[in-house]
Amino acid sequence: MEKITSKDNARIKAYAKLAVSRKERQRQGTFVLEGEKLLLEALRCGVEIRSVFAGERWLERHGEALPPEISGVCAAVSEGVEQRLAQSQTPQGVYAVCSMLDNPVNLAKMEEGGCLLGLWDLQDPGNVGTMIRTADAMGMDGVVLSRECCDLYSLKTLRAAMGSSFRMPVLVTDMADFLRESGFTSFAAVVGEAEPLGQLQFPPKTVIVIGNEGNGLSPKQVGCCSRQVTIPMRGRAESLNAAMAAAILMWEASSRGAVR
Amino acid sequence: MEKITSKDNARIKAYAKLAVSRKERQRQGTFVLEGEKLLLEALRCGVEIRSVFAGERWLERHGEALPPEISGVCAAVSEGVEQRLAQSQTPQGVYAVCSMLDNPVNLAKMEEGGCLLGLWDLQDPGNVGTMIRTADAMGMDGVVLSRECCDLYSLKTLRAAMGSSFRMPVLVTDMADFLRESGFTSFAAVVGEAEPLGQLQFPPKTVIVIGNEGNGLSPKQVGCCSRQVTIPMRGRAESLNAAMAAAILMWEASSRGAVR
Questions:
Q1: Cβ–Cβ of A248/B243 closer than 8 Å?
Q2: How far apart are CA B113 and CA B142, in angstroms?
Q3: Which of A59, A229, B65, B205 suits a disulfide with A187, CB 3.0-4.6 Å?
C-alpha cells in the first residue's frame, strides 16, 4: 500500500481543498468524509469511493478486514498528514473522497413519492443534517433543498445526518420552480394563523416546507406554497426552532398516513 | 452613569469569570447574560438584575428608554471593555449579572403539574436550551435536569432557550431520586422494544425522560423509570437525535391531553 508522508502531496492538498470549498466540490462532483462509520455507510449505500486515506493506527486495527472497494483505493498516511486531513478535533483515522450522488436519479425516486420535506434557505449544516436524519427515521420519501441551503456535502451536514444523506433521495433545486412544477401539495410551516396541525390530513404527494432558522418563510415564499400549516402552541414561547418544527410535522405526516 | 474604561476593573473581571465558570455561578448564585432581547425577557419574568454593563453605542440608542430596574444598576463601558465582556463573536451591546431563579419555588409549581420533560445527563448546551424552548412552546409544566446535565445558566443554554429558561419551571436535581420520590409516572424514551408512541395515552403527572445525546438512557437509567416509550421508525435511520425525539414526544403528550 502506498504511504504518503508529505503534507504537500498533491492528493492531500486536493483533499484539504475539497473539505472546505463547496465550489470545488461542485466543480469536481466529489466530496470528502471522515470516520469509519460514515465511510462504511456510504459504501453500503452505493456511494462511489474514489480514494481513501488511512492513519497508521487505524490501519493496524482494520487493515486486514477492509472490503476491496476501500483497500483497492487506500493509501496510508503519516500522523502529520492525518492532521492535515482531519477536520474535527478528534482525528477519525480514515478519510475518503467520494462521488456525489446522482440528482436526476433521486428525483425520479421522489416523483413516485408520498411525502417530502422541503428546506428553503436553511443555513446551519448541523440543522440540515439532523433534519435529513429525522426525515429518514420518519420514512419520508425524500428531501428537497433550495439552492441557497447550506451544502448537503459539507462535513458538518454529513456528520449530523449520520448516513441518512446517502440513504434518502435528496434533490437540490430551485424551490419556487419545484413547488410550481412538481404537482405536490405544498404546506408552508408558519407561526400564527394557518391550518392547525393535529386536525389536518396530509394528502398524498405532500411536501412540508420549512423556512430559514432565523426568519422562517418569507411572505413571498409562503405565497409559493399551496397551503399553510401551524403547530398549535400552548405555552409562552413564540416559536419552535426549525428542526423541532420539522420533526413534529414529519411525525404527524408519518403517523397520519401521508407517508406510505 | 458610571463609565468603566479598564478591562482590569474588578466588576468586569468578576463578570468574565461568571461567564465561563459554572462553579463560580453556583458559588455566587448568579449568572450572566448578553443581548437586549434576553435581558428584557429576564426582566419580564421577574429575574433579579444585579448589574448591567452597556456599550456606548447601545446606550445611545436605548439610554432614554431604559426601565428603572436596568438604568438603576447600569454602567457604561468602553469598546475595549465590551470586547472583554462579549462571549459571542457579534457583540450584543448589553451584558447583565442576574440572580439564579429559586429552585424550591419552581418545584412547588411543578408538583401541581401535569407533564414534565426530564433530561438525564444531556451534554450539549444548545440541545438543552432548545428542548427547554420546545417544552415551553408545547405547554409542558416544567423541566427536570439531572445534576450531570450541562449548565442551565451557561450562555449557550440561555441563548438556545430564548428566554424559556426564565419562563419554565426548571428543577436541577438527582434524577433517580426524583423519579423514585416524585409520584410522577416516568416514561423512558428508548429505541426498540417499548410501548409505541401514537397508541399510548400519557396519564396525568407524567415525566418524559430523555437520555444523553450519544448513548441514550443506560439500562440502569431505564430501570429507574415506570414505563418505556419508543417512537416507531418507518425509515432506515437507527434513531433520532435527543432533541428531535423530545419534540415529537412532547407534541404527542400535548396533543393527547397529558398537558392541560
A1: no
A2: 8
A3: A229
